[in-house]
Amino acid sequence: MNDLGELLQKLGIARIAAMAVVAVMLVGFFAFIIIRATTPQFAPLYTNLEFEDSAAIIAELNATGTPHDIRAEGGTILVPRDQITSIRMNLAQNGLPRRGQVGYEIFDQQNTLGATSFVQNINHIRALEGELARTISSISRVQSARVHLVLPERELFRRDVKEPSASIVLTVRGQLSTGEIRAIQHLVASAIEGLNPNAVSIVDSAGTLLASGTGSDETSIAAQAIEERTLGIENRLRTRIEELLASVVGAGRARVQVSAELDLNRATRTAEVFDPESQVVRSAQTRETGDQSQGPGNLGEVTVANELPGASENGTAGAGGTSHTSTTLEETFNYEISRTTETTVTEAGAIKRLSVAVVVDGIYTYDAAGNSDYAPRSQAEIDQINALVRSAMGYNADRGDQVEVVNMQFADRPDITAGSEAPGLFDFTREDLMRFVEMAVTLLIGLALILFVMRPLVKKVLAPEKQPLALPPAAAVPAAEVQAELPDPHAAARAREAITEAWLEQAKSLGESQVKTLKMVGELVEDNPKQASLIVRDWLSEAA
Known about the structure:
This protein is α+β, with helices and mostly antiparallel strands.
C-alpha cells in the first residue's frame, strides 16, 4: 500500500486524471465497436403502410419477440436484414399487411347467424372493394388504390334496371399509360357482373381525371384504340429492326424510328356475281298432243250399212272419203345459273403506309494508346442494311412504304470495355457500398480519437517531470574519485577546473535566460499594469 501511495504521489493528480480519461475513452470506443458489430443490420420490411397495418404488424412482431424499428411516422418498419423473408412469410400467413383494405376475410371475423341482409350486402360490397384494391395495387406503377362500387338492386315489378358503376382513386408512381388505364377498367368490369368497362371512372391522387366513366363517348374510345394500335405497331417494328441491326453493327450503334399510317375507314362491301357459263338443268318437261279428222265422202248419210259394226271403216273406204292426223310435241327446260354472294367487312386500323428511318454509326478503330479513329461505312454495307430493314418491316412498294438508311457519326463514342468482362471481385452492390462507407467512417473516427485525443493524453502521462537545474559545488565531487580516475594530481586539478568552468557556463546561460524572462515580465507589467495587478492579487488570495 505504501508503494502504491508513493507511486500515486509520484505520478500526480494530472497524470492520474489523464490516465483515467484515456482508459474510459478506450473502453467506450471498443464497446461501441463491439456493439455495432454484434447489432443486426436493419432493412425495411414494408414501406408506405397504413396505420392499421402498421399497428397490426408491430403487435405481431412484439408477440414473436422480433427486434424492429419504426420510421416515417409508422409508415416504414425495419427488421433484421437476414430475417426479412421469414417475417414476411409469417405475416402473409396472418393476412398482413392488408393495405388498409378489408377483403373476403371480413366474413371470417363475423357471426352471420344474426346478421341482416342489409349488413350482408354491405359486407359483400366492402369485400369486393378491398379485393379489387389489393389487385390493382399489385400493378407496378400503382402505389395504392381505393375502390368504390355502386351495385344497385333490382326493384320488384320494375322493368328498368340500373347499371352498376365504379370509381377508383389511384396513387401512382410516375404516369399511367392509356393501355394501363384501360386494363384497370377491364379488370374491375370483369370482376363485377353486368359492369361495363366504360362505366369505371379513374382519378389519380393529384385530382387528374384519367377515365371519365360516362360510357357514352364511343368516339374517344375508338380514337384511343387506334392510337394504341399505332403505337403498338411502331414499337414492335422498331424493336424488331433494332435487335436485327444490333447483331450486325453492335448494340447501341443504330437508331430506328418507325412511323405507321393506319387506315381509319371501316367499310362493308356486298357483291352478288352470276356466271352464265356454268349452267345446270334444274328441271325438264315434255308434252305431246295428237289430232285426227275425216274427209267429206259420205258424210251425213245414214244407211243400214253405216250402222252395222265395222261398216263405217269399210263404208268410208268404199265411199272414197279422206282422214287427217296431226301430233304436237312441247319440251320445257329450266336452267340454274351459278351465283356468288360475297360480303367483305374492312375494319379500321389496317396499315396504310410505313415510313422507317435508320441512322447507323460508322466504324471505329483503336490504336495502342486507345485513341479512336472514325471511318464511314461503305455503300455496299448500307445497301445490305437497307435490304435487311425492308425484309424486317415487310416493305410493300404498292403501299407507298419508305425506307431511309443513313450513315452518320454518333455524338457518343462506343465504350469498348463495356460488357467485355464478367462481374468481378470488386463489383459491389449498393448495400455493400453503404456498409463499406459506414466502416470507413467508423475507422476515421477511431483514428481521429487515437491521434488527437488519446495520443496527447498518453504523451502527457509518460512525459517525465521537469526538475530544477541544480549546480552542485565543486567540493561535492570527491577528490579521491577524481584522483583514482586521474593519477596525475595536475590532471585532476585541471579536470576540476574544467568541470567548474562548465558549471559556470551553464549557470551563466541560465542566469541570462532568467534575466531575459524577468525583463519580458517587466515590460508586460509596464504595458498592462491593470492586468498585472489583478494577477498579483489572485496570487495573494491563493497564498492566503
